[in-house]
Design brief:
Length: about 500
């Protein structure tokens, strides 16, 4: 590919090194008049009938001109012609699909994009197929704020030649950094020291990035500061340092500035480390609806990998006590924290990469994201994002059990794993009415189908569209009954104090 996407971006794919065809250029109203011929005409004097549209002008064919002239003769039967696109020097032109390219010395670029032209009595239409190529880099590194670690300077570049050119350039480096204000209080001095030691001109914008402030107002605030910094959108990526909310907000701002500005995400929470930092989506809340504008926040895929489930079940308390920090060397694969986060990242990438634009709406990574958006916004700030997702997953585990997909023992193993990680498995704000409302909203965004990911065992799952309301209500009643009973038992065991594990959270 002849274009690189740095951390955030897109490009049409193309194939380099194919010899250019012989072409005759024409433009509307100047039939046969050369615009910028790039090769000789065929030796037999015939025209190949290919046309080039100069940059900034619209290509109009003979047939299109005829369609626009009153009384012009149009074909009785619709005519369909498929074209592929080639670039000769700096001009793109179309040639009929399957037509051979002549041998010549000059290099051309053949695009994967295609144009289909259909001429009928009603006029002319074009169908454009434009494949979009995405390339982004996920880096796991230690001591990212050590001045000798260049990840924040060059880590977003994937092409070794571009890294060589960038490091050899005498142009002063510039970076615009958005950092969560809590992270700034903890690590702000080290962030500033990092850029000062590397002689980088920088601007650091510390902001309160929470679900309550996750809005277009904050995005516009960032964009004003970016404009004042006079950012070069090609060579100066925006850096976001914070949790998932911070990464979402900055990602949307970067995507809006000059329509697409590269950005680097530095996650500072466990959830953003294995979730928001891995995918290519962003967004903000709108009208009390989660991520209504922009992209989406992909969930953590727990159920598709039994090894991950076993790790969390066996080492959950240790991982919590050590805050998922690795105490061993970078290459030590026996480390539970490293294994857990790496499996989470790898399984997330396996799900996201083939379906980055969500053309396929059947996504296992939507597990935990059917009712949690409605619940999270309803009870703010009672539940954090990951907690709301877990409440959703707990309920869907009961739905799978009610459908006969999970046995009672498997259901209990999943819930015990959640409790072992001190995650809530129920919230009194998650009423039956809220669940019904959330699932109706789901139908709007799922093409009329619920597309419900449900576990069918430990480490395996499938998508279901035929779960009845009776099954959902039966699962809900059992879920509430079990969780209230669990809460009462915990309260009795601890006297009058609160249940320590918070496995059931009342409002």
């Amino acid at each position: 590919m002849d274009w690189l996407w740095e951390a955030s971006g897109a490009s049409s794919g193309s194939i380099r090194g194919i010899q250019r065809p012989e072409v005759v250029c024409s433009r509307a109203g100047q039939k046969g008049r050369p615009l910028k011929s790039t090769s000789k005409a065929p030796s037999d004097g015939r025209s190949l009938g290919r046309e080039i549209s100069p940059s900034g002008s619209m290509l109009v064919t003979e047939e299109a001109c005829a369609a626009a002239v009153p009384g012009a003769t149009m074909p009785q039967e619709p005519q369909q012609t498929d074209f592929q696109l080639v670039r000769v020097r700096s001009t793109w032109c179309r040639i009929k699909k399957g037509e051979a390219l002549s041998n010549d010395e000059d290099e051309i670029t053949l695009s994967e994009a295609k144009i289909g032209e259909r001429i009928s009595e009603g006029g002319i239409s074009w169908i454009i197929e434009a494949p979009i190529y995405f390339c982004y880099k996920v880096v796991e590194t230690y001591n990212i704020l050590e001045p000798s670690n260049t990840t924040l300077l060059w880590g977003h570049i994937t092409d070794p030649q571009q890294i060589e050119l960038a490091t050899a350039s005498k142009r002063k480096l510039r970076r615009f950094i958005v950092i969560d204000e809590v992270v700034d209080k903890l690590y702000g001095s080290k962030v500033r020291e990092y850029f000062e030691e590397n002689n980088v001109q920088h601007k650091i914008l510390a902001l309160p990035t929470t679900e309550e402030t996750k809005s277009m107002d904050l995005v516009l605030n960032i964009l004003h500061e970016v404009q004042n910094f006079s950012l070069d959108r090609r060579t100066e990526p925006i850096i976001a340092i914070g949790g998932g909310v911070c990464l979402d907000i900055v990602g949307l701002a970067a995507s809006l500035y000059r329509r697409r500005t590269p950005y680097i995400r530095v996650p500072t929470t466990l959830l953003s480390y294995v979730d928001a930092s891995v995918g290519a989506k962003n967004g903000v809340n709108f009208l009390q609806c989660k991520n209504k504008l922009g992209g989406y926040t992909p969930p953590m895929a727990l159920m598709k990998h039994k090894g991950l489930f076993d790790l969390l079940k066996s080492h959950g308390k240790y991982l919590l006590d050590t805050k998922f920090q690795s105490c061993n060397s970078f290459a030590h694969h026996g480390d539970a924290a490293l294994q857990t986060t790496r499996i989470a990242i790898e399984t997330m990438l396996e799900e996201l990469a083939p379906n980055l634009w969500e053309d396929d709406l059947d996504r296992l990574v939507d597990f935990g994201h059917l009712i949690s958006p409605e619940l999270e916004m309803r009870v703010l700030p009672s539940l954090m994002h990951g907690e709301a997702v877990n409440v959703d997953m707990a309920f869907m585990t009961y739905v799978a059990h009610a459908r006969g997909l999970l046995g009672a023992e498997e259901k209990e193993q999943i819930l015990q794993c959640m409790r072992g990680l001190e995650l809530p498995v129920w919230h009194s704000g998650c009423s039956w009415a809220l669940i019904q409302r959330a699932l109706r909203e789901r139908l709007k965004h799922g093409g009329g189908q619920p597309r419900m990911p449900l576990p069918t065992g430990l480490g395996v799952a499938d998508i279901f569209n035929d779960t009845s309301e009776e099954t959902l209500e039966r699962a809900y009643k059992l879920w509430v009954k079990d969780c209230k009973m669990e809460l009462e038992e915990e309260l009795q065991a601890q006297g009058d104090g609160p249940a320590r594990s918070l496995s059931c959270l009342p409002l």
